[in-house]
UniProtKB/TrEMBL annotation:
It is an enzyme of class 3 (hydrolase). Its cofactor is Zn(2+). Keywords: Hydrolase, Metal-binding, Metalloprotease, Periplasm, Protease, Signal, TPR repeat, Zinc. The keyword Acetylation does not apply. Residues 70-252 form the Peptidase M48 domain. Belongs to the peptidase M48 family. BepA subfamily. Its EC number is 3.4.-.-. It is found in: Periplasm. This is Putative beta-barrel assembly-enhancing protease. It comes from Photobacterium piscicola. Its main location: periplasm. Residues 1-25 form the signal peptide.
Amino acid sequence: MFQFAKTPTYLLLSALLTTSLPAIANNASLPDIGTTAASTLTIDKEIEYGEMYMRMMRASRPIINDPVLTEYIQDLGHKLAANADGVKTPFNFFLIKNYEINAFALFGGNIGIHSGLFLHAKTESELASVIAHEIAHVTQRHLARSLEDQAKKNPATMAAMLGSLLLTIAAPEAGMAALHATTAISMQGMLNHTRSNEKEADRIGISTLAKAGFNPQAMPHFFERLAEQYRYTTKLPAMLLSHPLPESRITDSRLRANNYSVVRLPPSERYLLAKSRMVARNIGFSQTSALNWFNAELKTTPVNQRKELNYGKGLVYLDSGQYAKAQQLLLPLLAAEPNNAFYIDAVTDLNLYQKHYDKAINRLESALQYQPESSVLQLNLANALFEAQRYQQSIKILNRYSYQHPNDINGWALLVQNYAKQNQRDGELAAMGELAALRAQWGLAISNYTQAAQRAKLGSLDQARYDARLDQLRLQQAKFEALRSSF
């Protein structure tokens, strides 16, 4: 619908997550560690830090703002979180455009997954095993526990490390330098903590995986394949640097998984479609390379799984302007599954490129009768109305959508375009202000809203709304700066 190299930030975040308390992974029962880190960070404070870091991430990292993929990863992540023990924070799952295999957890239940992970996970259960592992890092509060452990050695360390995390998101090289300057722990001790936390996250993650209905054997299978693939290489992927994989950890995960029944699941259509969409648009392949990948996979893939590959191939043709080829692949898929959001999204794009606006709008309105809460369908309809120059109708949908999804950049960005076409400068400025606030660009956000309030009719509801939002933004800015100044 709407259409980077390894960075040290993710390695740093994951490394911090895996430097924690002495080994507890072999305990028979889960420890109640909810209060263990309370003297360092409360849950509420973790959530505040998580929000702050996410704003910085949006400003400086290639987050994938694809509604279809976002809906998929959120659904998968929340299915796992709903089956996790000890959940004390809301969870937010997001995707990073990065070929490296990796995933990481921030404060406050924010979990990032690299697009490259989709290339290496053979099944949805394998992808779920990685996410379940990261959820365990959050529920066990590994980062907070690590900071508490460091604070016991040096009271100034916690604030310095929090500041380094923030600085690293904004300026990676400076942040890494700051981190090294404040970390006084031996390499052996760090490795011990890493192994402890990783085994604990594996153990709890396997339990979550089983409760959510996935195959618990997927975790050791994924580990074994990664270890074999990189056994003799000198350049390890990011995931193995931040999540060390010694033989003992692989063995431990295999023994843990053997305590559960093997779950034999049919291939997940949604996972295979998400994987194809990743390859077509978010792995970093050229269009030629992506087509070569799909053609190679089609030669060895069972007939009943080829539709997902044809979907990805159709996207490549769509994005390269080869609409006849795209249509030949995509229309039969939609005809067979008319309520599939992946296919609806792709064929809507095809319709819009071909200027068949009414056809796209009618299909989306019909689909929304059955899936009224679908963010994919709502955004697609707003976009189709925009392309059809039905701006006020698009604005109406987007105002409701952005109220319900205030952290989704897509809604605000499309509002900016709609208001600009209508010459509604105050609305355009306000939407631009929201985009700036989502990236922690507080000065710009306040400036945009100030101008919006000045342009609105004196005494109007719009002016009152802009003034109220200005007050909120100033409070958020003050809170943000107070958090930063506490480092």
